[in-house]
């Protein structure tokens, strides 16, 4: 059974979003997603300053088996990519909601994580095989 | 739902991730593909390879049939039990399949062919067997378990039935010991020592459980793929198929053109050889971070372009490795296009890893 923390928001494409105290958001992929991908061996994170629209491919996560895109749940400007993942991509497997975060974003005006799925909604999505 | 092996329920109960492989529901890993890979390189692991098809050829015409059908020369098989790796070709030299042929006695050869090509292979073999009078018997009643790794043979010994234990222990590399029901071969697809064991399907679960109790780790097809890549072994459908010849697939060493033996595809290969083979299959080491994947374009400078045929992350080398088909004149360093960026890669001599040891410089 995969973990789904209740204080985060989620997307159908298995990203999670955490709102930080300064109003920026942290984005990663869910426990369910990392489990489905298997051992991660390479992660390409976005450069700071890159502008993203909601739904843009913003990072690539590669497991031994395959490469997958990560989509930005919100529009905004990249504040930071997680540099640790360059040498320790497995952090996404071992700590998907913590050290395995992928990028931080300053949301565009009007973009809010409250428009995304709650943990209950995501739980139902996963249970339905999404 | 795909076809299932006799061990499917065991895989499912063990929490394996199941994927479609050539129409079969097969375990790709049981949690961590990388740990399974290391288990084989450092200790012992086992694979359910029951989707592969054993085919018995019975009758005095079995050897003449294979002399005609295989690009490698079964005339070289003189000691009973000896195995030979070969391609089976179309008349135009394209590779229909790669397989292992075991010589058991003058009236009995056994082939092991790939799952995805088994039906086509059988039709092809039967068509030629008709003229020679050989019985072609697919052995779907058998399960197949590969036990591989430095400690595979010692760990597997106690799980074999008493009557084939001594014969298995005495096997030389690339030899098999056939029994009435069990068949133990010292062959594999990982670059490590070990056995490939065929046995009646109804006994497969007991063997699997016994091996597990002896400390042999269940491994999925994911680890099997990274192991064979490190070992420099081709995968049919990725690294060669009916559109290329063995000479363009790093398999010239398995083709015997010398002598008067005429096999299907020989004339085409002789013509290709005489004209000069334009492309070759090579090993690639990606220099920066990233992962090589099949179908990525390869730029070989003035020599032209090629393509990655198989690529992965090598758990042993902790770097990305792969095979690519490139122009014969390709320089020792090429570029591979990954998501729009050209990254440098070095052509290296295969294999990357054998018997637990890295054989290339990083």
Main beta-sheet annotation of chain A: 6 strands, antiparallel
Assign the structural class of chain B, choosing from mainly alpha, mainly beta, alpha/beta, alpha+beta, or little secondary structure: alpha+beta
Extract low-pLDDT stretches of chain A. Answer: none
Low-confidence stretches of chain B: none
Radius of gyration of chain A, rounded?
A: 13 Å
Number of domains of chain A: 1
Report the top-level CATH class of chain A.
Answer: Mainly Beta
Task: Describe the overall structure.
The complex is a heterodimer of chains A (130) and B (362). By secondary structure, chain A is of the alpha+beta class. Chain A is 15% helix and 32% strand. Chain A contains three helices and nine strands; from the N terminus they run E-E-E-H-E-E-E-E-E-H-E-H. In chain A, the strands form two sheets. Chain A has a six-stranded antiparallel β-sheet with strand order 1-2-3-9-8-5. Chain A has a three-stranded antiparallel β-sheet with strand order 4-6-7. In chain A, strand 6 and strand 7 form a beta hairpin. The two termini of chain A are 15 Å apart. Chain B has nine helices and 21 strands. Chain B folds into two domains: 1-231, Gyrase A, domain 2, CATH 3.30.1360.120; 246-358, Elongation Factor Tu (Ef-tu), domain 3 (Beta Barrel). Chain B is α+β, with helices and mostly antiparallel strands and 362 residues long. Classes of the chains: A alpha+beta (130), B alpha+beta (362). At the A-B interface, strand 4 and strand 6 of A face loops of B.
Short descriptors:
heterodimer, A: 130 residues, alpha+beta, OB fold (Dihydrolipoamide Acetyltransferase, E2P), three-stranded antiparallel sheet, 9 strands, B: 362 residues, Gyrase A, domain 2, Elongation Factor Tu (Ef-tu), domain 3, 2 domains, six-stranded mixed sheet, six-stranded antiparallel β-barrel, 21 strands, globular
